[in-house]
Amino acid sequence: MKVIGIVGSPRVGGNTEQLTEEALRILREQDIDTKLVRLAEKKILPCTACGACESEETCTLDDDLLPLYHRVKEADGLILASPVFFGSATPQLKAFMDRAGYISYNNGFTFARKAGGPLVVAGRNGGNFTNTQLMLWFMILGMIVPGSTGWNTALGSAPGDIWEDTEGMDVVRNFAGNLAWLVKKLAQPTV
Fold first, then answer.
1. pTM to 2 decimals?
2. Structure letter (DSSP) for residue 148
């Protein structure tokens, strides 16, 4: 069992990465393999709506999207994490969502029935909208999102601020525990 955490922040080591690492730590404690992917270290171009992926799992753009798409396709679970940028997910994460989502959607819903969910870091505003934006991506692709005790959002501006948001961190830890439970349930053979 494996869960991939994709960090959409352009900053390496910032709050969004720290939040994702904390969620992945909880998953590892439950004997689930994890992999952190930083979009800051990848080249993911925006979709050009060329239609090449409408009949096969391909893309005409030459960047890092297709290898990452296939890693997600092979994983059991996925976390998408973003800081709030002007009330929305980062352009880096949105480019991944648009292109990987379009490929999955047009080729038999390849991400369907995988477990996953969003993580968001907000300075003050935009957390609910960004959380919803990411959540709707999981839903339209037929993925299964476990709940928590609130929205998966931690507050913080300067690197490390999220650790002061004890309520937000508890919500994210609870989400990660529920995600671990769900991944294990989905991996069990059906009778």
1. 0.96
2. -
